[in-house]
Amino acid sequence: MGNTGIFIDFGSTFTKMVAFDLDAEELIAGVQVPSTVDSDITIGLDQAFSLLAEDIGIGNAEREQAVACSSAAGGLRVICVGLVSEFTTEAARIAALGAGAKIVGVYSFELSDREIAEIEEIRPDIVLLTGGTDGGNKKVICHNAKALAATGPRVKNIVIAGNKSAYDAIRDIFAGTAKNLIFAKNVMPEIGVLDIESSNRTIREIFLRHITDAKGIAKVKSKIRDVIMPTPSAVLAAAKLMADGVSGTEGFGELILVDVGGATTDVYSVADGLPTRTGVNQVGLPEPYAKRTVEGDLGLVYNLATLQEISKSTSATANFGEFASSSSEIGRVPVGEKQQQIHIWLSHLAVKTAVERHVGRIEARVFPNGEMYAQRGKDLGNVKWVVGSGGPIVFSREPRLVLAGALSQDGSPGLLKPKTAELMIDKNYIMFALGLLAQSDPIKAMNLIKKYVVKL
Prior knowledge:
Layout: E1 4-10, E2 14-21, E3 26-34, H1 41-56, H2 60-64, E4 67-70, E5 76-82, H3 85-98, E6 101-108, H4 113-122, E7 126-129, H5 139-149, E8 157-160, H6 167-174, E9 180-183, H7 197-214, E10 226-230, H8 231-244, E11 245-246, E12 249-250, E13 255-260, E14 265-270, E15 280-283, E16 290-295, H9 304-312, H10 336-358, E17 361-367, E18 370-376, E19 385-389, H11 391-394, H12 399-403, E20 422-426, H13 431-438, H14 442-452, E21 453-455
Parallel strand pairs: 1-4, 4-10, 5-6, 5-7, 7-8, 8-9, 13-19, 15-18, 19-20
Antiparallel strand pairs: 1-2, 2-3, 11-12, 13-14, 14-16, 17-18, 20-21
Helix pairs in contact: 3-7, 5-6, 8-13, 13-14
């Protein structure tokens, strides 16, 4: 064959494989099979390769050059520990999410014995320890370092990204322990200043060096070239490329991308998000230009009961007919008219709820001299595009209805959701592959985005 590039996503629900003709810049095949991470992840990989070979006749050379991303086995599970919840702890959370992590715990102030026991029970892949601006409070971060240093083998990887003045003391605290201790730049070096790139990079490196081995993903390296990043990082890379473009090729402009999956619903925004309304002031931490949030209770396979509970509290439910009383009525693929209607509505609801959690909001504050308005989070009202990805959107018979949940509604003027954005769809479910390709050839990746991410 010609210059064929193969890209793989080891997901919690499905293992997906995409092949591009890189010379012609065309998608030539895509397959997916149920993930087998709970038994042997290479079983699903081999099944996907077999299906792909039936379509395009790939050989060993193409297989050995394939690259992958992964969110299997629960993804990259991170606990964030900081000083103050609205500042360093929130900065840690933003940093971890930007690195492709799934947040499984958030703690502020000095850790108690009970909280340390909780952390050990959770068994995180990484603890991200922050606290204090540079030259500021050292007491809390050092207290928390001592508590974490005394934990057992369930807590292994610890990233320090707080007050740099405490780093020598923290290094001494962990001396002689078996912890994998890595220092990054402070996520909040000054009040109101966010610096997450160093932590992003450090967390991704730990994922590649240590966590892929622990999850059995390293076994696939004997069959392909490499697993190079967490899946959410690949999707965020594709979204950022789509918005910004690349040298010589103009991007689409500010956008939101919603990726609905079986276990989570992820929302990505590539936008400044500064206040656009007169008389509104920004409060809280500054928001990153490229931001990701993940909602672990909004997956269309593992969280149907939660979605159905949310549906009971919305007046729009009546517009979609009778709903199942339990998630057992819907399997991984809806069957029959009733199940399809339910699935469309729950997918719409997942999009709506996830975007409302992601965007900023306007808060009215009353002062002695009158009422003032503050914006917390990103104002995404003027973004140009809302892009849909993930099976429940891509394979839906009514993707426009599902994705419309991302748009602003008259009943919630304080929510800063897109007002007039155009809807687009990752019609072949290849955003992860485009993000992987962007690491080596962003120009080809951008050209493929323009070809396969289309208006609804």
